[in-house]
TrEMBL record:
The gene is LOC115366858. It comes from Myripristis murdjan (pinecone soldierfish). The keyword Mitochondrion does not apply. Pfam families: PPIase_AIP. InterPro entries: AIP/AIPL1/TTC9, PPIase_AIP, PPIase_dom_sf, TPR-like_helical_dom_sf. This is Aryl hydrocarbon receptor interacting protein like 2.
Amino acid sequence: MEETYLLNLPGVKKKILAGGTGPLPHFPPGTKLVFHFQTLLDNFERTVIDDSRLAKRPAEIFVGKMFKMEVWETLLTSMRVGEVAEFWCDAVHTGLYPIVSKGMRLIAQGKDPLEGQKHMCGMGNLFHYNSTGYPELDELMRTPQPLIFIMELLQVGDPMSYQRESWMMEKDEKMQTVPILHMQGNALVKQRQFREAASKYKEAVLLLKTVQSREMPGDIDYINLGRMIIPLELNYCQCMLELEEYYEVIEHTTELLEKHKDCVKGYYKRAKAHAAVWNEKEARKDFNMVANLDITLACLVRRELNALLGENIRSMHVCQKKTYWDTTQDKGEPDGSKATVC
């Protein structure tokens, strides 16, 4: 079934490609819309810019939540569940599409959709940056033009039937959620469910960083939020130590110590991670920083150096010695057997 008509919005045309089922849904504020989409240029080739199916996950928006592409809310709320429709939208409606597209691509890669943006309106971000990192989107920024969207509405969710996404929360909601996540993480640690606990701590950190990004660097609120992040980051790193994901610990503690150079626990956890992967020089340096920052921990540091670092180095030397002798012996064997690798 194909039918072309104008929606009650200047600069928009709709063509139904496949009819949906049931009556037109009700879309109160907060309704979750799940859909697949394709974005095409309005040229002879109908060049495809984006396709949510290639990312293997549908897109989601929430009615009334100031999604940057406001026209998408209008398009989707004209559809029935299961309907597939093609929309032609004039350039007046597509100016912010490069930013929306970049954000969705980052989400598909598991990254922060606000990466690289400052706290300003969508158009402010559009003019502040020279490049999105994608040539085809940069071209749309330089030359706004009509676009074609092919959409399939998969699901319409009741606003009360799902847990609110973090980005939908107001500042107060986020701040109230953080201690809950912290306690949930602690409870999971006691059950030795370190992977699940790490997820709770990480979610809490992201909430605080989102709130912090809206504050002026150097202001008291910005500083206090940074201090609240520290114990959550340290708890996350402790979970990663328990899971033996040492390079993850090194990455997160390094980022933490760049902002908080006097964080003793940060140096201690990074030292443990370095020792575990035989980074002798880095481990010694971090353990010594722990002792320098807190003299009461000097005895602990000595024990750690002897017990952890010493054992690792001895194990490495034994392994290297065994490999050397096996290699030497193999040179005289006629069967060409290989040296043992530890």
